[in-house]
Amino acid sequence: MNPHYNGITRLGRLDFPRFNGDKVREWLFKVEEFFLIDGTPDDIKVRISSIHFDVPASTWHQAIMQSDLGVDLLLDWKSYRLLLVERFEEVLDDPIADLKNLQETDGIAEYNEKFEVIRARVKLSST
C-alpha cells in the first residue's frame, strides 16, 4: 500500500458510483475521475470499486476473487478493469449506428444532449 495514502478517501462526501453491470464504460469513466481527484493508489482501486457493486457485478466479482486469478487481481487495477469491460460491455453497442439513426424530435437542446452522449462512446482515429 502507498505510505502517503491515509486509507480514507478524502472525498468521503462525494458518492462513489455504484455498478450493477450496466454501462460499464460510463461507470469506469466516473470511477477514474474519482480516483484521479482523490489520488487513490492503484493497489486499492479494486477493493474500493468492488464494495460499490450490486448484483450481477457483485456476483461476478466474488467468482473472480474465488478463482486462481483473484489474489493477483486485487492489486492490479488495469487488468481488473479489462476483465470488467470484457464481461459487461454491451456486445451490440454500435455508437456509429446510433449517430446515424439520431433524429431531432423533441427540440434542439434534447437532440444535442443525445448527440453528446453518443459522441462520448465513439472512438475515432485522427489519422
Task: List the SSEs and their pairings.
Layout: H1 24-38, H2 45-50, H3 57-66, H4 70-73, H5 77-88, H6 95-101, H7 108-119
Give a structural overview:
The chain has 127 residues and is an all-alpha fold. It contains seven helices and no strands. It has helices at 24-38, 45-50, 57-66, 70-73, 77-88, 95-101, 108-119. The chain is elongated and about 50 Å long. The chain starts with 23 loop residues before the first helix and ends in an 8-residue tail after the last helix.
Quantity of strands, as a count: 0
Q: What profile does the largest beta sheet have?
A: none
What structural category do the secondary elements indicate?
mainly alpha
Radius of gyration: 17 Å
Distance between the termini: 40 Å
Query: Helix and strand string, N-terminal first?
Result: HHHHHHH
Q: How many distinct helices?
A: 7
Percent helix: 40-55%
Q: Roughly what fraction of the amino acids lie in strands?
A: under 5%
Question: Which parts are unreliable, with pLDDT below 50 for 5 consecutive residues or more?
Answer: none
The residue-averaged pLDDT reads: 82
What is the overall silhouette?
elongated
